[in-house]
Write a structure and sequence with these properties.
By secondary structure, the chain is α/β, with parallel strands linked by helices. Helices cover 25% and strands 21% of the residues. It has a 6-stranded mixed β-sheet with strand order 3-2-1-10-11-12. Strands 4-5-6-7-9-8 form a 6-stranded mixed β-sheet. Helix 6 packs parallel to helix 7. It starts with a helix and ends in a 7-residue tail after the last strand.
Amino acid sequence: MRRLLPILTLLLSCGGGAPRPAHPQRSAAAPPPPGVVRFLVGGDSRQDGAHVLPWALDLAKARGASAFLFLGDMELTPSFDAQFRKELGALAPIPFYPVLGNHEVKLLGVLGVGQGHAEKEFREHFLGTPATPVKSSLANKIVYSVNLSGGVHFVALDNVSQKGFGADQLAWLAADLDQARFDPDVRHIFVGVHKPLAHNKVTTHSMDSDGPDAVADSDAAFALFEKAHVDLVLESHLHEFARYEQGGIRCYITGGLGAPLARSSPDHAFHHVLVIDVYDRGAVNVDVARYDGAPTFETDQVAVDDPND
Protein backbone atom coordinates (compact mmCIF):
# COMPACT_ATOMS: atom_id res chain seq x y z
CA MET A 1 0.00 0.00 0.00
CA ARG A 2 2.91 2.38 0.77
CA ARG A 3 4.12 1.94 -2.81
CA LEU A 4 0.76 3.23 -4.05
CA LEU A 5 0.90 6.48 -2.08
CA PRO A 6 3.31 8.27 -4.46
CA ILE A 7 1.13 7.21 -7.40
CA LEU A 8 -2.03 8.48 -5.74
CA THR A 9 -0.32 11.74 -4.84
CA LEU A 10 0.76 12.22 -8.45
CA LEU A 11 -2.72 11.49 -9.76
CA LEU A 12 -4.28 13.95 -7.33
CA SER A 13 -1.76 16.62 -8.24
CA CYS A 14 -2.61 16.07 -11.91
CA GLY A 15 -6.29 16.63 -11.26
CA GLY A 16 -7.42 13.03 -10.85
CA GLY A 17 -10.15 14.14 -8.45
CA ALA A 18 -10.38 17.79 -9.39
CA PRO A 19 -13.59 19.31 -10.80
CA ARG A 20 -13.90 19.21 -14.56
CA PRO A 21 -15.06 22.56 -15.98
CA ALA A 22 -18.14 22.50 -18.14
CA HIS A 23 -17.57 22.27 -21.85
CA PRO A 24 -17.71 25.82 -23.24
CA GLN A 25 -19.83 24.99 -26.26
CA ARG A 26 -23.54 24.39 -25.87
CA SER A 27 -24.94 21.53 -27.95
CA ALA A 28 -27.28 22.61 -30.74
CA ALA A 29 -29.27 19.54 -31.71
CA ALA A 30 -32.86 18.66 -32.41
CA PRO A 31 -35.02 16.49 -30.14
CA PRO A 32 -36.38 13.24 -31.58
CA PRO A 33 -39.31 13.43 -34.01
CA PRO A 34 -42.77 12.24 -32.94
CA GLY A 35 -42.97 8.49 -32.46
CA VAL A 36 -39.30 8.15 -31.48
CA VAL A 37 -37.85 7.53 -28.01
CA ARG A 38 -34.18 8.44 -27.62
CA PHE A 39 -31.48 7.14 -25.28
CA LEU A 40 -27.89 8.25 -24.85
CA VAL A 41 -25.36 5.58 -23.95
CA GLY A 42 -21.69 5.73 -22.99
CA GLY A 43 -19.05 4.75 -20.49
CA ASP A 44 -15.56 5.51 -19.18
CA SER A 45 -15.44 9.13 -18.08
CA ARG A 46 -12.52 8.73 -15.67
CA GLN A 47 -9.65 11.23 -16.04
CA ASP A 48 -11.81 13.31 -18.35
CA GLY A 49 -9.28 16.00 -19.17
CA ALA A 50 -11.12 16.83 -22.41
CA HIS A 51 -14.41 17.51 -20.53
CA VAL A 52 -16.40 15.06 -22.62
CA LEU A 53 -18.86 14.15 -19.86
CA PRO A 54 -20.36 17.66 -19.48
CA TRP A 55 -20.77 17.75 -23.27
CA ALA A 56 -22.57 14.38 -23.27
CA LEU A 57 -24.91 15.39 -20.45
CA ASP A 58 -25.69 18.62 -22.28
CA LEU A 59 -26.27 16.65 -25.49
CA ALA A 60 -28.74 14.36 -23.70
CA LYS A 61 -30.90 17.36 -22.91
CA ALA A 62 -30.47 19.04 -26.28
CA ARG A 63 -31.42 15.87 -28.14
CA GLY A 64 -34.37 15.01 -25.94
CA ALA A 65 -33.11 11.79 -24.37
CA SER A 66 -35.58 9.91 -22.18
CA ALA A 67 -32.74 8.25 -20.23
CA PHE A 68 -28.94 8.11 -20.03
CA LEU A 69 -27.42 4.61 -19.81
CA PHE A 70 -23.94 4.74 -18.28
CA LEU A 71 -21.67 1.71 -18.68
CA GLY A 72 -19.22 2.21 -15.85
CA ASP A 73 -15.94 3.85 -14.76
CA MET A 74 -17.10 7.24 -13.55
CA GLU A 75 -13.79 8.31 -12.01
CA LEU A 76 -10.29 6.94 -11.56
CA THR A 77 -10.93 5.49 -8.11
CA PRO A 78 -14.03 5.20 -5.89
CA SER A 79 -13.14 8.08 -3.58
CA PHE A 80 -13.42 10.50 -6.53
CA ASP A 81 -17.02 9.56 -7.39
CA ALA A 82 -18.41 12.57 -5.52
CA GLN A 83 -17.18 14.72 -8.40
CA PHE A 84 -19.16 12.60 -10.85
CA ARG A 85 -22.28 12.97 -8.70
CA LYS A 86 -21.85 16.73 -8.76
CA GLU A 87 -21.60 16.82 -12.55
CA LEU A 88 -24.52 14.42 -12.89
CA GLY A 89 -26.80 17.08 -11.44
CA ALA A 90 -26.72 18.78 -14.86
CA LEU A 91 -28.63 15.82 -16.33
CA ALA A 92 -31.80 16.33 -14.23
CA PRO A 93 -34.60 15.53 -14.78
CA ILE A 94 -33.43 12.87 -17.27
CA PRO A 95 -33.17 9.45 -15.53
CA PHE A 96 -29.70 7.92 -15.17
CA TYR A 97 -29.12 4.16 -15.20
CA PRO A 98 -25.56 3.08 -14.32
CA VAL A 99 -23.71 -0.19 -14.81
CA LEU A 100 -20.96 -1.00 -12.33
CA GLY A 101 -17.40 -0.45 -13.60
CA ASN A 102 -14.19 -1.79 -12.10
CA HIS A 103 -13.13 1.75 -11.13
CA GLU A 104 -16.31 2.08 -9.05
CA VAL A 105 -15.35 -0.70 -6.67
CA LYS A 106 -11.58 -1.18 -6.93
CA LEU A 107 -8.77 1.17 -5.97
CA LEU A 108 -7.41 2.57 -9.25
CA GLY A 109 -9.63 -0.02 -10.94
CA VAL A 110 -7.47 -3.00 -9.99
CA LEU A 111 -7.09 -3.41 -6.21
CA GLY A 112 -9.96 -4.82 -4.16
CA VAL A 113 -9.00 -2.85 -1.02
CA GLY A 114 -12.25 -1.68 0.55
CA GLN A 115 -14.36 -3.14 -2.25
CA GLY A 116 -17.31 -3.94 0.01
CA HIS A 117 -17.44 -0.37 1.30
CA ALA A 118 -17.14 1.05 -2.22
CA GLU A 119 -20.02 -1.10 -3.46
CA LYS A 120 -22.16 0.00 -0.49
CA GLU A 121 -21.39 3.63 -1.27
CA PHE A 122 -22.31 3.10 -4.92
CA ARG A 123 -25.69 1.66 -3.95
CA GLU A 124 -26.41 4.57 -1.64
CA HIS A 125 -25.40 7.28 -4.08
CA PHE A 126 -26.48 5.92 -7.46
CA LEU A 127 -29.40 3.52 -6.91
CA GLY A 128 -32.79 4.09 -5.32
CA THR A 129 -32.68 7.82 -6.06
CA PRO A 130 -35.15 10.05 -7.96
CA ALA A 131 -32.77 9.91 -10.94
CA THR A 132 -32.35 6.13 -10.71
CA PRO A 133 -35.52 4.66 -9.15
CA VAL A 134 -34.25 1.07 -9.05
CA LYS A 135 -32.46 -1.14 -6.55
CA SER A 136 -30.15 -4.07 -7.08
CA SER A 137 -31.88 -7.43 -7.41
CA LEU A 138 -28.98 -9.24 -5.72
CA ALA A 139 -27.52 -8.51 -2.30
CA ASN A 140 -23.87 -8.96 -3.33
CA LYS A 141 -23.85 -7.35 -6.79
CA ILE A 142 -25.11 -4.27 -8.63
CA VAL A 143 -27.63 -6.02 -10.88
CA TYR A 144 -31.07 -4.80 -11.94
CA SER A 145 -33.52 -4.47 -14.80
CA VAL A 146 -36.03 -1.75 -15.63
CA ASN A 147 -38.70 -1.14 -18.25
CA LEU A 148 -38.05 2.16 -20.04
CA SER A 149 -39.98 4.21 -22.57
CA GLY A 150 -40.38 2.81 -26.07
CA GLY A 151 -40.96 -0.72 -24.81
CA VAL A 152 -37.28 -1.11 -23.87
CA HIS A 153 -36.29 -3.55 -21.12
CA PHE A 154 -32.81 -2.58 -19.90
CA VAL A 155 -30.71 -5.12 -17.99
CA ALA A 156 -27.62 -3.96 -16.04
CA LEU A 157 -25.15 -6.74 -15.21
CA ASP A 158 -22.03 -6.89 -13.02
CA ASN A 159 -18.92 -8.52 -14.47
CA VAL A 160 -16.34 -6.50 -12.51
CA SER A 161 -16.84 -7.16 -8.77
CA GLN A 162 -15.79 -10.76 -9.45
CA LYS A 163 -14.42 -12.71 -12.39
CA GLY A 164 -17.37 -13.66 -14.55
CA PHE A 165 -21.00 -13.29 -13.50
CA GLY A 166 -21.41 -16.03 -10.93
CA ALA A 167 -24.14 -18.66 -10.68
CA ASP A 168 -26.51 -16.41 -8.73
CA GLN A 169 -26.40 -13.65 -11.34
CA LEU A 170 -26.83 -16.08 -14.25
CA ALA A 171 -29.87 -17.63 -12.53
CA TRP A 172 -31.36 -14.17 -11.97
CA LEU A 173 -30.63 -13.22 -15.59
CA ALA A 174 -32.36 -16.32 -16.95
CA ALA A 175 -35.49 -15.60 -14.92
CA ASP A 176 -35.50 -11.90 -15.80
CA LEU A 177 -35.12 -12.48 -19.54
CA ASP A 178 -37.82 -15.17 -19.52
CA GLN A 179 -40.21 -12.74 -17.87
CA ALA A 180 -39.30 -9.96 -20.31
CA ARG A 181 -39.84 -12.19 -23.34
CA PHE A 182 -43.47 -12.71 -22.41
CA ASP A 183 -44.19 -9.20 -21.17
CA PRO A 184 -46.54 -7.54 -23.69
CA ASP A 185 -45.08 -4.13 -22.81
CA VAL A 186 -41.54 -5.17 -23.80
CA ARG A 187 -40.59 -4.81 -27.45
CA HIS A 188 -36.81 -4.56 -27.16
CA ILE A 189 -34.19 -5.86 -24.74
CA PHE A 190 -30.93 -3.96 -24.22
CA VAL A 191 -28.19 -5.43 -21.99
CA GLY A 192 -25.48 -3.28 -20.41
CA VAL A 193 -22.18 -4.63 -19.06
CA HIS A 194 -18.89 -2.93 -18.33
CA LYS A 195 -16.39 -5.44 -19.67
CA PRO A 196 -16.98 -6.69 -23.22
CA LEU A 197 -18.01 -10.32 -23.37
CA ALA A 198 -15.60 -13.07 -24.38
CA HIS A 199 -14.94 -14.11 -27.99
CA ASN A 200 -15.87 -10.66 -29.31
CA LYS A 201 -13.05 -10.59 -31.95
CA VAL A 202 -12.40 -6.92 -31.16
CA THR A 203 -10.39 -6.98 -27.93
CA THR A 204 -9.13 -9.31 -25.23
CA HIS A 205 -9.43 -6.40 -22.78
CA SER A 206 -12.63 -8.16 -21.84
CA MET A 207 -13.96 -11.19 -20.02
CA ASP A 208 -11.44 -13.23 -22.03
CA SER A 209 -8.70 -11.93 -19.72
CA ASP A 210 -10.46 -13.09 -16.54
CA GLY A 211 -9.82 -16.80 -17.02
CA PRO A 212 -11.74 -19.88 -18.17
CA ASP A 213 -14.50 -19.63 -15.56
CA ALA A 214 -15.28 -16.07 -16.63
CA VAL A 215 -15.29 -17.10 -20.28
CA ALA A 216 -17.71 -19.92 -19.46
CA ASP A 217 -19.97 -17.40 -17.68
CA SER A 218 -19.81 -15.11 -20.68
CA ASP A 219 -20.81 -17.95 -23.00
CA ALA A 220 -23.69 -18.90 -20.69
CA ALA A 221 -24.95 -15.31 -20.62
CA PHE A 222 -24.77 -15.02 -24.39
CA ALA A 223 -26.80 -18.20 -24.77
CA LEU A 224 -29.48 -16.55 -22.63
CA PHE A 225 -29.29 -13.41 -24.78
CA GLU A 226 -29.86 -15.45 -27.92
CA LYS A 227 -32.80 -17.31 -26.39
CA ALA A 228 -34.43 -14.03 -25.34
CA HIS A 229 -33.74 -12.33 -28.69
CA VAL A 230 -31.79 -9.48 -27.11
CA ASP A 231 -31.59 -6.52 -29.50
CA LEU A 232 -28.40 -4.81 -28.31
CA VAL A 233 -25.48 -5.57 -26.00
CA LEU A 234 -23.82 -2.37 -24.77
CA GLU A 235 -20.27 -2.51 -23.35
CA SER A 236 -17.39 -0.19 -22.46
CA HIS A 237 -14.03 -0.77 -20.62
CA LEU A 238 -12.09 -0.41 -23.89
CA HIS A 239 -11.64 3.33 -24.47
CA GLU A 240 -12.82 3.51 -28.06
CA PHE A 241 -15.77 2.71 -30.30
CA ALA A 242 -16.40 -0.64 -31.94
CA ARG A 243 -19.36 -2.43 -33.42
CA TYR A 244 -19.56 -6.17 -33.98
CA GLU A 245 -22.05 -9.02 -34.15
CA GLN A 246 -21.97 -12.05 -31.93
CA GLY A 247 -24.51 -14.82 -32.10
CA GLY A 248 -26.61 -12.67 -34.41
CA ILE A 249 -26.82 -9.88 -31.80
CA ARG A 250 -25.53 -6.37 -32.43
CA CYS A 251 -22.93 -5.35 -29.86
CA TYR A 252 -21.33 -1.97 -29.25
CA ILE A 253 -18.23 -1.05 -27.29
CA THR A 254 -18.58 2.59 -26.28
CA GLY A 255 -15.86 3.68 -23.86
CA GLY A 256 -15.47 7.23 -25.10
CA LEU A 257 -16.82 9.60 -22.42
CA GLY A 258 -13.45 11.17 -21.65
CA ALA A 259 -11.06 8.45 -20.46
CA PRO A 260 -7.61 8.31 -22.10
CA LEU A 261 -8.18 6.82 -25.53
CA ALA A 262 -6.96 3.38 -26.51
CA ARG A 263 -3.94 3.08 -28.77
CA SER A 264 -5.99 2.34 -31.82
CA SER A 265 -6.77 3.89 -35.18
CA PRO A 266 -8.52 7.29 -35.38
CA ASP A 267 -11.50 5.44 -36.86
CA HIS A 268 -12.13 3.85 -33.46
CA ALA A 269 -10.26 5.78 -30.76
CA PHE A 270 -12.25 8.99 -30.37
CA HIS A 271 -14.44 10.49 -27.67
CA HIS A 272 -18.12 9.96 -28.30
CA VAL A 273 -21.52 8.89 -27.03
CA LEU A 274 -24.11 6.62 -28.64
CA VAL A 275 -27.53 7.98 -29.59
CA ILE A 276 -30.13 5.21 -29.79
CA ASP A 277 -33.53 5.95 -31.31
CA VAL A 278 -36.41 3.52 -30.81
CA TYR A 279 -39.22 3.97 -33.35
CA ASP A 280 -42.84 3.20 -32.57
CA ARG A 281 -42.95 1.08 -35.75
CA GLY A 282 -40.33 -1.29 -34.33
CA ALA A 283 -36.91 -0.19 -35.56
CA VAL A 284 -33.89 0.64 -33.40
CA ASN A 285 -31.38 3.11 -34.82
CA VAL A 286 -27.87 3.54 -33.34
CA ASP A 287 -25.78 6.61 -34.17
CA VAL A 288 -22.38 7.72 -32.94
CA ALA A 289 -22.14 11.36 -31.84
CA ARG A 290 -18.47 12.36 -31.95
CA TYR A 291 -17.17 14.86 -29.44
CA ASP A 292 -14.91 16.45 -32.06
CA GLY A 293 -17.89 17.20 -34.27
CA ALA A 294 -16.70 14.98 -37.11
CA PRO A 295 -19.46 13.41 -39.23
CA THR A 296 -21.04 10.29 -37.84
CA PHE A 297 -19.61 7.35 -39.73
CA GLU A 298 -21.61 4.54 -38.17
CA THR A 299 -25.37 4.29 -38.38
CA ASP A 300 -27.14 1.00 -37.76
CA GLN A 301 -30.81 0.23 -37.88
CA VAL A 302 -32.20 -2.95 -36.41
CA ALA A 303 -35.52 -3.81 -38.01
CA VAL A 304 -37.97 -5.54 -35.72
CA ASP A 305 -41.27 -7.06 -36.76
CA ASP A 306 -44.13 -4.85 -35.70
CA PRO A 307 -46.93 -6.92 -34.14
CA ASN A 308 -49.38 -4.28 -35.30
CA ASP A 309 -48.52 -4.73 -39.00
